[in-house]
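Table 4 source record.
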Amino acid sequence: MSSHHDTVRDQFSRQAIPFSTAPSMRDDKALQLLIDAAATNAADTVLDVACGPGLVACAFAKVARQVTGIDLTPAMIDRAQALANERQLGNVGFQVGDVLPLPYPDTTFSLVVSRFAFHHFPNPAAVLAEMRRVCRPGGRVAVADLMASPDPKKAAAFHRMEMLRDPSHARALTLEELRTLFARAGLRPPTETFWRMEVDVEGLLERSFPAAGNLEVIRQMYVDSVADDALGLATRRENGRVRITYANVILCA
């Protein structure tokens, strides 16, 4: 049986280009929201955990002194380095590596961030503990991710669908679960910044690589949820297309 790491590498090797070009991922306003929520300044040394194609790291590099991105998937790191080169950013570097443990000494960074990765971690509490470990006293730890519905039935339906759509998915957490992670990590109560991300379902499916035969099942799950919001994604039809809304949060402590 392949490990979760193998599944993540497989999925994100295929997603490296489509993920990095998706409008919702490249959205400058959403990136600026994270930079602002993390109170980023010109003296900061930043670590981007599970940095993917480098969109977050490169955005922070325009503000912070130095940025490091780490990701498990070599194809993502190649994409991130290409993006940094394209933007002529000399203060950002990337490495292939695992997040458990993070390969850095204690108190290395003033700001440790992670965006849209926690729902891929089988043990998010351990990852947050590592993020805190490598953050210096007085620094900040920021997690941005989508939120599962507080309705357990809708959260379970969303989880079933996501496991089909993206096998590297672990589990989306509710806002209360994310808050609990921060408390258990010994962090102060975080500030909370909310935003919504509008997504076209067909565009999302074009960037997804489910197992053979599952695509129509997944598409039908979205279509069926138009009637009753079974997935907790405010699924609706607009101009003949099915669209969803992800409810996202940035927690910073």
